[in-house]
Design brief:
heterodimer, A: about 250 residues, alpha/beta, Rossmann fold, 6-stranded mixed beta sheet, 4-stranded antiparallel beta sheet, B: about 400 residues, mainly alpha, two-stranded antiparallel ribbon, about 5% strand, binds adenosine-5'-triphosphate, binds magnesium ion, cell membrane (chain B), transmembrane (chain B), LivM-like (chain B)
């Protein structure tokens, strides 16, 4: 029994079957990659896991509890953090403030009114935030306004914001898209190191096969809303069905 | 000092100094000079400056931090005034219980309205608050006449019970509002040469409360709560997926700003013990929006500046009529004098709204950060590092 169990999930948008009969089991402390051509339904699947969408059919269990019907903040409090395909950060706030908010959320829960003491007096949290920023090579940008940062930096920041929550399950939607090669490699190293040093399960959507094969313990190939194959990376590489799915896509394009 | 960072402490000290010395600062012109009409240092107006300052400081906690634009905050001010007058009628003329009740009732009332209105965001939220405020106005104006005394407004009378006080004084007149015996209307005059300054008890009570209100708002701005409110304005999606529930934070901000409005309303009634429905009208709600934007929404001191500016215009500019203009330009030949008066006429006296409107337009178009941004630009022009009226929304929690 995996930490994440997706059973018979289906989701339609009007006449479009975005997901059908999706079954997925992610074992604890592994990295599970979901790959597939554009429009395969990968992001839609993640949306069903974090409460952004409610599937029409099927069930999603996390850590033995159903996530369906819970709101996004409740699901996050259960231990799921998510990095979005287009970075979602607090763009009017500084880098450091962006880091403090997830720390408060983890320590104080979904709502706690601290209206009197200064944010700066939270020395312990500030230190934690600084360490995390150092891990993602952003400590020098701590006082910067995030609105003016590059897309790659925004992604790294968003990932740091998720990691600092020490989630049980980390969902990454194309975390290296828009990053320079060097930053991509740094991200791979960071994720590897986090995977080894902490109890964390990772589900990653990625088009960059280098990233996928460096990190994944298992890979699911999704095409037209249904899983084609699921296997260990070595088996996926030369799998005929996978080639077909991707070649099919190229043929369309 | 006071548990604040140095920059905020300085700002607070400046505000304390300015409010305490206001009777001097606002009366810079000798009493007999032609410019005396620009003096704003009389008790009634000074009280209005700080009372509306409190109103705007509170409004800024909601609008400046979360970006939720309420068009109904005058309702809370009105409720505060009615509560205070009822305390004067039933309990005693001491303003302390009256103000406490104003804040509590306004808080409960804003909890109800906020709870419903915050189901929506953006323009729908604004419309909901506007609708509620207009409903409250209509109720106060007619339906609830037994409580609000309808169009006449609620006043204190000689046969009110005042169980802890007296219904009427020994000579048969209505007792005056006081704080443990210190009368709100008491004033002391100080004549220095050609100048004259008035110190009013009522003003100093309001001023102390405004300083407290300002201090509380600094603490809120710098607190984790304040940071959450700015996060709500910035990105609610990220907020949700970070495990935070934005609703109760926004509601808390709404209630806090409602309580500030209640305090302002209670103080208004404490200075002049009557309450009328017009205090709740949408124009009054719009005024506090203008004050906040004019001064600089999301900055600490901006709302106070905006409130001061608008009240100054309303009370001083509106008094410049054609006679005054004629005396100003009497040194000119008649034709020219009439021309000048004709040109200025639409902008002063009853036309003060026009001048204010133009200033407001210019500020919004060219200084999106309001008067505070203007001050910062001037400060930068003179090469200083940072002007003291700097704000907050931009401060980062560094070490
Ligand atoms: N909210 C929505 N409303 C309607 N259709 C949607 C919605 N979200 C996604 N879709 C459609 O569902 C299909 C799957 O989209 P999804 O974003 O999950 O693909 P993806 O696998 O993440 O693709 P990519 O690799 O381009 O990110 C697409 O055809 C998309 O247009
Ligand atoms: Mg996608």
């Amino acid at each position: 029994m995996g930490i994440l169990e997706v059973k018979d999930v289906g989701k339609r948008f009007g006449g479009l079957k975005a997901l059908s009969d999706v079954n997925l089991s992610v074992a604890e402390n592994t990295c599970h990659a979901i790959i597939g051509p554009n429009g395969a339904g990968k992001s839609t699947l993640l949306n069903c896991l974090v409460g952004k969408l409610i599937p029409d059919t099927g069930s999603v269990m996390f850590d033995g509890q159903s996530v369906l019907g819970r709101s996004p903040h409740e699901i996050n409090q259960m231990g799921i953090s998510r990095v979005f395909q287009t970075p979602e950060i607090f763009s009017d706030l500084s880098v450091m403030e962006n880091m403090m908010i997830p720390l408060f959320a983890r320590r104080d829960g979904a709502y706690r009114l601290h209206a009197y003491h200064s944010v700066l007096s939270e020395a312990e949290l500030v230190t934690k935030a600084e360490q995390m920023l150092a891990d993602v090579n952003m400590l020098d940008k701590r006082n910067m306004h995030t609105a003016s940062m590059s897309r790659g930096d925004k992604r790294r920041l968003e990932m740091a914001m998720c990691l600092i929550q020490e989630p049980k399950l980390l969902l990454l939607d194309e975390p290296t898209a828009g990053m320079a090669r060097a930053d991509t490699n740094n991200t791979i190293d960071l994720l590897k190191q986090i995977k080894d040093s902490r109890n964390i399960t990772i589900a990653i959507i990625e088009h960059d096969m280098h990233v996928v094969f460096s990190l994944a313990d298992r890979i699911t190939v999704l095409a037209q809303g249904t899983p084609l194959v699921e296997d260990v990376p070595e088996k996926i590489k030369g799998h005929p069905k996978v080639k077909e799915a991707y070649l099919g896509e190229t043929a369309h394009a | 000092m006071f548990g604040l960072q140095k920059k905020d402490t300085n700002l607070l000290l400046i505000v304390i100094a300015l409010t305490m010395l206001a009777p001097f600062i606002l009366n810079p012109f000798p009493t007999d000079s032609g410019l005396a009409q620009f003096n704003a240092g009389y008790p009634d107006l000074m009280q209005r400056f700080v009372i509306f300052g409190i109103f705007a400081i509170g409004f800024n906690i909601l609008f400046g931090l979360t970006g939720y634009l309420s068009f109904g905050h005058a309702a809370f001010l009105g409720v505060g005034s009615y509560s205070a007058v009822w305390m004067f009628k039933l309990l005693s003329m001491n303003i302390l219980p009256a103000i406490i009740l104003s804040v509590v009732i306004a808080g409960l009332f804003s909890l109800l309205i906020g709870w419903i209105s915050l189901r929506r965001t953006g323009i729908y939220f604004s419309i909901l608050t506007l609708a509620f405020a207009q409903m409250s106005f209509a109720l106060a104006y007619s339906v609830l006449t037994p409580i609000t005394n309808g169009e006449t407004g609620l006043q204190i009378t000689l046969d009110d019970p005042r169980i802890l006080g007296i219904s009427q004084t020994a000579d048969g007149s209505i007792p005056v509002t006081n704080l443990f015996g210190m009368e709100m209307r008491a004033t002391t005059d100080l004549a220095l040469g050609a100048w004259s300054f008035t110190f009013s008890m009522g003003y100093y009570v309001c001023a102390v409360l405004m300083i407290l209100a300002f201090y509380m708002s600094i603490r809120i701005f710098r607190s984790p709560f304040g940071m959450m409110l700015r996060a709500i304005k910035s990105n609610q999606t990220r907020m949700n997926y970070t495990g935070l529930n934005p609703k109760p934070y926004t509601l808390a901000a709404f209630v806090i700003s409602g309580m500030y409005a209640g305090l302002a309303g209670g103080l208004m009634a404490s200075m002049d013990p009557l309450a009328g429905a017009e205090r709740m009208q949408w124009t009054a709600s719009g005024e506090v929006v203008l004050m906040t934007i004019l001064g600089g929404a999301g900055t600490l001191i901006g709302p106070v500046l905006g409130a001061g500016m608008i009240k100054y215009f309303e009370n001083i500019f509106s008094k410049i009529n054609d006679n005054v203009l004629h005396t100003w330009f009497s040194f000119m030949p008649d034709g020219l004098e009439n021309l000048m008066v004709g040109i200025l006429h639409p902008f002063v006296g009853k036309g003060w709204h026009l001048t204010l409107g133009i200033i407001f337009m210019l500020v919004v178009a060219f200084l999106p950060g309001g008067l505070v941004e203007g001050g910062q630009r001037i400060g930068r022009m003179f090469g200083r590092k940072k002007p003291t009226d700097d704000t907050s929304a931009k401060t980062e929690p560094a070490e």
